[in-house]
Amino acid sequence: MRKKCRKGSLEDYRAYLKSRDMKPNTVEKYIRDIRKFLVFIQNDKLDHDAVVRYREYLLSRYKDTSTNSMLVALNGYLKYIGKKECRISLLKIQRQFFVDESRELTREEYNRLVKQADKEGNQRLSYIIQTIGSLGIRVSELSYITVESLSQKAVCINSKGKIRYILLTASLVKLLKAYCTQEKRVSGSIFVTRTGRPVDRRNIWSSMKALCRRAGVDESKVFPHNLRHLFARCFYEKEKDIVRLADYLGHSSVETTRRYTMTSQIEECRKTLEMGMVGEHCGHKHKNKRKKAL
Fold first, then answer.
1. For residues 277 and 194, what is the distance between their CA atoms, to the nearest angstrom?
2. For the stretch 193-217, what's the b/e string if a residue is b when 16 or more beta carbons lie within 10 angstroms of its beta carbon?
């Protein structure tokens, strides 16, 4: 007989998070973060002081952003089990205006991945990369790209009660129609496994990891969501329209979109700060001194 979970257990909380339509990967992350805290306190009293000590523990081992992410998960759990008074404030982090270039996939690296997949005859992976890269969709939304959607040149995505439309470019439609003809696919999701099921995140990630080694691209940069970031940066560099980009990405907040468009080029940031506030006045002084000396 299955043992009934006690109120406040991780299994109870897991079920609660799922009932709120939280993404499965997010649910598992929250559970991992909370389990980490429970291991930390072990048999100690669960009070505010214990949470403060845990925050210091996290800070000694993780980046500020990772610490805050884990504290968000913990605060939600503390509220759920009736320990609201134990919740702790997050770290105040200055908003960044550029991202770490070493973690950012470039257009040149993207092209190398596509070329390598084509070279190896792995058309499915090549076209998956191009589909995500050209549309900026989430990997979980890839199954919505169907044979039927090609004739409509648009995709309707219904997720968590939110409906949005993705426009398919003419070049992508042409590419995918040729692929469907070759694969003799006449209906349903375009990208499927050998058993006919839509490819999932795990299928794509493992294939991309193997590909990047042969394409000479750093593995840390190669994961499906980074293609979404690349789309956002390329679109914003071209159009400078963050509101429309938010619509394309399915973001309810422009602030979320802003994080996708941060430049990785520190030098570009420095150039934007050059506003003629330094050097001109000093330059005139030096010129006057040279004239007097003559």
1. 63
2. eeeeebbebebbeebbeebbeebeb
Euclidean distance between CA atoms 86 and 80, whole angstroms? 12
Q: What does the block give as tokens for 132?
A: 């995500």
Residue 155 near residue 172, CB atoms below 8 Å: no
For residues 123 and 179, is the Cβ–Cβ distance under 8 A? yes
Residue-wise pLDDT tens digits, 247-274: 888 888 887 787 777 664 555 566 767 7
Answer yes or no: pTM beyond 0.85.
Answer: no
| H helix or E strand, kind and range, residue 105 | none
Query: CB burial class (10 A; 0-12, 13-18, 19+) of residue 3?
Result: exposed
Torsion of CA 73, 31, 21, 92, to 10 degrees: 20
Rounded Cα gap, residues 72 and 33, in angstroms: 9
DSSP string, 208-265: HHHHHHHHT--GGG-SHHHHHHHHHHHHHHHH--HHHHHHHHT-S-HHHHHHHT-B--
| Phi, psi angle pair for 156, to nearest 5° | -100, 120
Q: Which two tokens stand for residue 79?
A: 């509220």
The dihedral over CA atoms of 152, 227, 62, 22, expressed in degrees to the nearest 10, equals 10
Q: How far apart are CA 256 and CA 181, in angstroms?
A: 38
pLDDT tens digits, residue range 187-234? 999 999 989 999 988 889 889 999 998 999 998 888 888 899 899 889
Q: Which residues contact 62 (CB under 8 A, 6 or more apart)?
A: 70
SS3 192: strand
Decide if 124 contacts 195 (C-beta within 8 A): no
Per residue, the 3-state secondary structure of 108-166, as one string, reads: HHHHHHHHHHHHCCCHHHHHHHHHHHHHCCCHHHHHHCEHHHHHHCEEEEEECCEEEEE
Residue 28 is given by DSSP the state H
